[in-house]
Amino acid sequence: MFIKSLHLSGFRNYQEWETELSPGLTVLVGANASGKTNALEAVQLVTTGVSFRNPRWEDLVRWGEEGAEIAASFSSEATSTQVQIRVTRDGRRSCLINGVAKRRVSDVAGILPTVLFTPDDLDLVKGPAEMRRSAIDDLGDQLSKTYGSIRRDYAKVVRHRNTLLREWRAGVEDLDPWNIQVASLGSKLLTHRRRLLLRVVHHAAAAYKDLADGEELSVLYNDHCGLGSIPLDVEVTIDEAERAIIETLKGRAADEIVRHVTLVGPHRDDIVFLLGGRNARTFASQGQQRTIALAWTLAKVAVVEDIARKKPILLLDDVMSELDEDRRRALTSLVQKDVQTIISTTNTGYFDTKLLKQAVVVEIPGK
Questions:
Q1: Which CATH number covers residue 349?
Q2: CATH no. for residue 259?
Q3: Could you tell me where the beta strands, DSSP code E, fall in the chain?
Q4: Does an H or E element contain 59, and which?
Q5: Residues 190 and 266: beta-carbon distance below 8 Å
Q6: For residue 349, with 0-12 CB atoms within 10 Å meaning exposed, 13-18 middle and 19 or more buried, which class applies?
Q7: Does residue 342 contact residue 28 with C-beta atoms inside 8 Å?
């Protein structure tokens, strides 16, 4: 399945815009601030129900318009699917799939997975831990409604517990009911995350080895749940994780009360990339760190195909200028594997001439 066409009305800087997309490579060409990233954001919204920019919904509506609409036509050998997402000026949104109204915009997830790579993703190794957690959890959201539900419920419980710690000056006994919820949901999130991460790491290590002339990449999962440094290939059960979180919460209660924040749970965990057993954040060169980020993206494409049994759409937001020739070639090689790829760029000179002849090149007119 692939997106055959995209229509934007009142969305961001677009008044009315429609384009056909290639099942292989589509290149969106335009000057900076012309709306290339907005078009990629629209594709992500219509395939996942969320945006990597995390905007307020009302911010998606073009200035002076009453509302915005994203409409996409999906096509495969056997079926055709029409998806529409509408947003009003006050942020109310609705979603239709083949003309049938859905309860949530997120119901579009699962039609066609999406893998996004932006310049910010090049900081995967040296950026904050939250970035690495989101990198795996966002993938889990797309692949499993259960994963996404657990993640949202867990985040809600942690927010409520933090409010209790911050505003109500909670004592140890006040935290017990919340500890049970943090442990119950946190253990499920932790085990889901570890299983998915193991699959991504398997593909990422292979991709990195190919890109870096045989250099070995490995990953350490650094948990704040009381389990210690258990290798990813050693299974942790939900019961084991739940007991560890409960005990660790009890042990850190006094510290949490003083600091007014939940210090235990998978929301504090980190993913550590290792090259030759050394922390890549500290010891790797910028080129090595970018190669890890690229290998991670290639791995996500492979994992989506493994689990969802669908080839995802690969969205590349103006990253070609940030990569050297070898890394650009590695990314565009996915097009040869029948992965629908949409790339935004200011310069088609970054692309192989033969590849461009096979692509649909779309000029973005700008504001």
A1: 3.40.50.300
A2: 1.20.1050.90
A3: 2-11, 14-20, 25-29, 67-75, 80-88, 93-97, 100-102, 114-117, 217-222, 270-275, 278-279, 313-317, 341-345, 360-363
A4: none
A5: yes
A6: exposed
A7: yes
- What distance in Å separates the CA atoms of residue 23 and residue 361, rounded to the nearest whole number? 13
CB 341 within 8 A of CB 314: yes
Q: Cα dihedral sign for 200, 203, 204, 205?
A: positive
Structurally, the chain folds into a number of domains equal to 2
* Residues 225, 254: Cα–Cα separation, whole Å: 16
Whole-number Å distance between alpha carbons of 105 and 302: 26
Q: Same domain for 338 and 322?
A: yes
- Mean pLDDT, the chain, whole residue set: 91
| Best CA proximity match to 1, nearest among 77, 98, 102 | 77
Query: Can you tell me the distance from the alpha carbon of 124 to that of 105, in angstroms, rounded to the nearest whole number?
Result: 28
Distance from C-alpha of 287 to C-alpha of 95, rounded to nearest angstrom: 42
Q: Can you give the length of the chain in residues?
A: 367
The amino acid occupying position 318 is: D
Structural domain containing residue 63 = 1-112+311-366
Assigned domain for 80 exists: yes
Q: Token pair for residue 75?
A: 């096509």
Give the count of beta carbons closer than 10 Å to the beta carbon of residue 302.
20
pLDDT digits (tens, 9 = 90+) for 300-311: 999 999 999 888
Per DSSP, 365 falls in state: -
Residues 220 and 355 in one domain: no
Co-location of 166 and 230 in the same domain: yes
**For the segment 222-273, what is each residue's pLDDT rounded down to a tens digit?**
999 999 889 999 999 999 999 999 999 999 988 998 898 999 999 999 999 9
Residue type, 172: V
